[in-house]
Amino acid sequence: MRITIVTETYVPQVNGVSRTLSQLVRTLEQGGDAVQVIHPDYGKPPDAARCHRVPSLRIPFYPDLHLPIPPYRGVRTAIDRFRPDLIHVATEATLGLAVHRYAARRRIPIVSSFHTNFDQYSDHYRVGWARGLIWRYLRWFHNRTLETYVPSRATMLGLQRRGFRNLVLWPRGVDASLFRPDRPGREAVRRSLGFEADDVVIAYVGRVAVEKNVDYLAEALAEVARRFPRARPLIIGDGPARPGLEERLGGLATFVGFRSGDELADSYAAADVFAFASRTETFGNVVLEAMASGLPAVVLAEGGPAEIVRHGETGLAIDPDSPPSTFAGAILALAEDGPLRRRLAAQARDHARSQSWEQIMGTLRGRYEAILGAGSPAVAPIG
Question: Residue 277: which of 348, 338, 330, 347 has the closest Cα?
Answer without folding.
Answer: 330
